[in-house]
Amino acid sequence: MEEGGRAPTAIVGWACMTLCLVSYVAAFSQGASLSACSDMMPRHLRVQLHSSSSNYVTVHTNMSFFFPGDKVPVTVRSTRDYMGFMLQARKVSNMEIAGTFIFLPPGSKLLTCSEDGDTVTHSDKSLKRNLSFVWKAPDQPIGDIKFFISIVQSYFVYWAKIESAVVAQGGKN
């Protein structure tokens, strides 16, 4: 009788594990969670961090400096498809999130980490490659900034905090 009891138990266990995994994964298919705001790390099961020096993604802006209130175009370019991302601008001086995003491509949405619209994440799990955004600098001086993006290639592979070049605040004394 014992052997007859093992198979149904194994099936129930497998079904429970599968349903739990599917529901956990589905929760992140519509964007990063607020728990990722500070360290930009995905909260998936058993994800594997890859070195940011060996990534296939770059973050560009065509501006080397900005003034308070300026709108700065930001482009994320990739040589491979990816499913998820989180993008932020951060002050070089203290790594605080700064500014807001005012233009988003399809498949993305705003997230509020410190203030409304200061972070962008994916809104679906469609494959992405090259994306364009517009970031608006705060009206008060904040100093130099960098853009940071974390990319999730699959549920188990990601790159965290890929950096842009420094974008200097113009007009500093």
From TrEMBL:
Superkingdom: Eukaryota
Entry keyword annotation includes Iron: no
InterPro entries cross-referenced by the UniProt entry: Ferric-chelate_Red/DefProt (IPR051237), Reeler_dom (IPR002861), Reeler_sf (IPR042307)
Gene3D superfamilies linked: Reeler domain
Family matches, as PROSITE patterns: REELIN
Stretches assigned to the Reelin domain: 22-173
Residues spanning the signal sequence: 1-27
Keywords: Signal
GO CC annotation: membrane
PANTHER family linked: CYTOCHROME B561/FERRIC REDUCTASE TRANSMEMBRANE, REELIN DOMAIN-CONTAINING PROTEIN 1
Protein known as: RELD1 protein
UniProt lineage: Eukaryota, Metazoa, Chordata, Craniata, Vertebrata
